[in-house]
Automatic annotation (TrEMBL):
Protein name: Ribosomal RNA small subunit methyltransferase E
SUPFAM superfamilies in the cross-refs: alpha/beta knot (SSF75217), PUA domain-like (SSF88697)
Molecular function via GO: rRNA (uridine-N3-)-methyltransferase activity
A family per Pfam: Methyltrans_RNA
Catalytic reaction list: uridine(1498) in 16S rRNA + S-adenosyl-L-methionine = N(3)-methyluridine(1498) in 16S rRNA + S-adenosyl-L-homocysteine + H(+)
Family matches, as InterPro entries: Alpha/beta_knot_MTases (IPR029028), PUA-like_sf (IPR015947), RsmE (IPR006700), RsmE_MTase_dom (IPR046886), RsmE_PUA-like (IPR046887), tRNA_m1G_MTases_N (IPR029026)
Family: Belongs to the RNA methyltransferase RsmE family.
Entry EC number(s): 2.1.1.193
Gene Ontology process terms (BP): rRNA base methylation
Domain (Ribosomal RNA small subunit methyltransferase E methyltransferase): residue spans on this chain: 72-231
Organism: Fulvivirga sedimenti
Lineage: Bacteria, Pseudomonadati, Bacteroidota, Cytophagia, Cytophagales
Main location: cytoplasm
Length: 235
């Protein structure tokens, strides 16, 4: 199986792997000048390239072939409360990238058990998942954790928002039944779900509620399921 390297800026003339990727290429995988490797730029293109130099600090290359990939019709954006265990948040982010997420935002909610997250670690996992799954576009991650209230105020006029929560008595429409005809962001709360106050905020902003099914899911499972459903709807 081909190993992909990630190097932004190739169309702007960056025909080299920078230090972290170069170290993996030259020192770990022991590639030499003349070897052909696969590189992605995170902007929709994959490249077959031939190394002209190979050191742990920088690997220069010449482009042999370029393959361009179209964007998905609509953006899939997940805004979710991080889990108490940071490893589970990183796992969720990784799997969401494999399934086609475009953007991830981490929320603080009234019932959140974790309000601080090493977003640099999460982004590193997301980039690794992009390379592993050979996706052409780099996923976005908001650098700061944001409160649900501030997120809604910021995004309500920019993207369709949906809020997923458990309501056994009056289950809302299933997410699979929405029409995927525009960029969509789904909000998912912490293990204790959204508070009544937060649900009232969503109602006041006329954000439709959706269900992910009849069962209670862990936060990270709900995030992965939501991304998968939204991607399937636009296939």
């Amino acid at each position: 199986m081909s190993v992909y390297f990630y190097q932004p800026g190739i169309p702007d003339g960056k025909h080299f792997l920078e230090e972290e990727e170069a170290n993996h290429c030259a020192r770990v995988l022991r590639h030499k000048p003349g070897d052909i490797i696969q590189v992605m730029d995170g902007k929709g293109s994959h490249y077959s390239v031939q190394l002209t130099t190979a050191t742990a600090r920088q690997c220069d290359f010449s482009i042999l072939e370029t393959r361009n990939f179209p964007r998905d019709p609509y953006m899939v954006h997940l805004a979710i409360s991080p889990t108490k265990n940071a490893d589970r948040t990183e796992w969720m982010a990784e799997k969401c990238v494999e399934l086609g997420i475009h953007k991830l935002t981490l929320l603080t909610c009234d019932h959140s058990e974790r309000t601080r997250v090493r977003t640099d670690r999460v982004l590193k996992k997301m980039i690794a998942a992009m390379k592993q799954s050979m996706r052409a576009y780099a996923p976005e991650l908001d650098a700061e954790v944001i409160s649900m209230d501030d997120f809604i105020d910021k995004m309500q006029d920019k993207i369709r928002l949906c809020i997923a929560y458990v309501d056994m008595k009056n289950p809302p429409m299933h997410l699979k039944d929405i029409v995927m005809d525009q960029d969509t962001c789904i909000l998912i709360g912490p293990e204790g779900d959204f508070s009544n106050r937060e649900l009232e905020v969503a109602r006041n902003h006329k954000i439709p509620s959706v269900s992910l099914g009849p069962y209670r899911l862990r936060t990270e499972t709900a995030g992965v399921a939501a991304v998968h459903i939204l991607q399937l709807l636009q296939q």
